[in-house]
Amino acid sequence: MQFWIIGVAAVGITLAAFGTLVVVSRSAFRASAPEGTRPGFRLLPGNAMMSGLAASWERDRAAMVGVLHEDLQVLHARLDALPAGPAAETAAAQLRRAEEAARRFAANEEWADNLRATTTAAGRAVRAMAGSEEPVCLFNPVHGPAAAQVEWAPGGGARRRVPVCAQDAARLRDGGPPLVRTVPTDEGVVPYFAAHGRYVDWLLGWYDGADPYLTARLLAGTAIGGHLPGRIRAIHGADSDPLGEFGRVHD
Ligand SMILES: [Zn+2]
């Protein structure tokens, strides 16, 4: 619990620091302008846009910190129910790594790398706990490694086979919707794959260890799908894509 208090405090300190910076810049600008020509803060081109973007990013990052918090809580509860042994020890070590990376993400330190490091460690923890190396459930990675492949078509997109947990496979078999991981955004609560590029590094961490282009194929045609190939090439290098177009999108 302490970690989250630190995380929230870190966001608060970052916001305060940003506010101080704006005030200092504004005073410095006014002091440096000759008397009678001081245009004032409101006339600086781009300032309103920049502070708008910064505020939007702070809201996004706070929402993402909340998502990481919820998922790590679920994983801790799962670990508590696991008998002591090598699997539990591995999972506990990975959860500690995940929490440390999440703390750095909350403090806005190399945020993309630390977001990915958080879910990379979380993915190793769920695989250790489940004793499976399968890719995680596409609908919600915290569900754990996939137990089945099902046909799925995102919002009018092409049908493709996706890895899912046993519970989501059963829901789909019964004609119900899968339990998709939703996230809060400025546009409302949406599935993580509809939140544009916000959750790219989050998703790539969960799928660390699998074919690097797997997520790009599984989520082609969704909002996140447009952001995945470029980010995957940036992380793994263009040579990691020998088929040019990250392989076939679906069967
Ligand atoms: Zn699932």
Q: Short summary of the structure?
A:
By secondary structure, the chain is mostly helical. The protein has eight helices and four strands; from the N terminus they run H-H-H-H-E-E-H-E-E-H-H-H. The radius of gyration is 21 Å and the shape is globular.
How would you explain this protein's 3D organization?
The protein is built from eight helices and four strands. With 251 residues, it is mainly α. It folds into two domains: 1-131, no CATH class; 134-251, no CATH class. It is globular. The N and C termini lie far apart (45 Å). The structure holds zinc ion (ZN).
Considering the chains and any ligands shown, give keywords for the structure:
two-stranded antiparallel sheet; globular; mainly alpha; 2 domains; binds zinc ion; 4 strands; 251 residues; 8 helices
Termini gap: 45 Å
Number of helical regions? 8
Q: Which ligands accompany this protein?
A: zinc ion
Order of helices and strands: HHHHEEHEEHHH
**What proportion strand?**
5-15%
In terms of topology, how is this protein built?
Layout: H1 2-32, H2 47-80, H3 86-106, H4 111-130, E1 148-152, E2 160-164, H5 166-173, E3 182-185, E4 188-191, H6 200-206, H7 214-218, H8 228-236
Antiparallel strand pairs: 1-2, 3-4
Helix pairs in contact: 1-2, 1-3, 2-3, 2-4, 3-4, 4-6
This protein binds zinc ion.
